[in-house]
Amino acid sequence: MVQWLRSLLFFTMFCVGIFFYGVLITLVWPITPLTFRRWLAKQWAYYNLFMLKWVCGLKHVVSGQENLPPAPFVILSKHQSEWETVTFHTLFPFFAFALKRSLKWIPIFGWALAATQQIFINRSHGTEALRLLATEGKAAMAQGDCILIFPEGTRMPAGQVGDYKPGGVMLAMAAEAPIVPVAHDAGYYWPKGQLLKKAGTVRVKIGKPIPTAGLPKNARKQLMAQVEQSIEGMIEEIRAEREAEGSITPNPPG
């Protein structure tokens, strides 16, 4: 019961944070540079981490940050929870998300996303969506931005593996930028679609960058397999670490 109350309090403060930072970013949109608006988004992410830690008892630990290459690069991350979408700004240089287009129309939140120049795609349009991602993503990376993409496309419950899609790999190859694979276990603590946040420590692993410069187009499938192997391999490392220390996962994979 206590954790439910803590989770409800966090949800309230989370909504307050969205409103405050969303309105602020939208108001300064016409009069400030993009870097400042993205800095505000980063402060929102720090706010979320603070509330998760002190309200819900949910902390995080990161390994592998020394693997980050100079920007720009493409971040391909496991997607289990909302946790990574509201905290990852604290872990990486300024980046743009590749997001579903419908998020753009959410009042305040969607306005802030537009103000920080996220990349919106219509996933139902298949080839057209991939073309738009490649065009806008490459243009953003030419200006020094990193791009964050969830290659499984949607949130997958902890312990499950989704179908890895080619958009992120195609963008990295087009821009000749390195791929940074990322794994975490946030889905055990903040499961998809659930209010309850469980106390504990989210583990984040950043893998070694995978180069794409000079690769031929027919190397795409091999590169996709390498990305999936890297991410899922780090997921197994996280699971092994928990077993070694004798910790009990809140939601053991089925």
Describe the fold and architecture.
The chain is an alpha/beta fold and 254 residues long. The chain has one domain (2-245): Glycerol-3-phosphate (1)-acyltransferase. It is built from seven helices and seven strands. It has helices at residues 2-28, 34-56, 83-87, 109-115, 127-142, 167-175, 220-245; strands at 58-63, 74-77, 95-100, 119-121, 146-149, 179-184, 200-206. Strands 1-7-6-2-5-3-4 form a seven-stranded mixed sheet, sandwiched between helices. Strand 3 (95-100), helix 4 and strand 4 (119-121) form a beta-alpha-beta unit. The longest helix is centred in the N-terminal third of the chain and has 27 residues, at 2-28. It is globular. The two termini are 25 Å apart. Residues 249-254 have low confidence and may be disordered. The chain crosses the membrane at residues 7-32. Pathway: Lipid metabolism.
> What is the CATH class?
Alpha Beta
Strand content: 5-15%
Task: Outline the low-pLDDT stretches.
Answer: 249-254
Radius of gyration: 18 Å
- Second CATH tier, the architecture: 3-Layer(aba) Sandwich
Strand tally: 7
What is the overall shape?
A: globular
Helix count? 7
Strands of the widest sheet, in order across it, are 1-7-6-2-5-3-4
CATH topology grouping: Glycerol-3-phosphate (1)-acyltransferase
Could you report the average pLDDT, rounded to the nearest whole number?
Answer: 91
**What composes the largest sheet?**
7 strands, mixed
Order of helices and strands: HHEEHEHEHEHEEH
Straight-line N-to-C gap: 25 Å
Count of the domains: 1
Structural class from helices and strands? alpha/beta
Helix content: 40-55%
EC number: 2.3.1.51
GO biological process, one term: phosphatidic acid biosynthetic process
Protein name: 1-acyl-sn-glycerol-3-phosphate acyltransferase
Transmembrane segments: 7-32
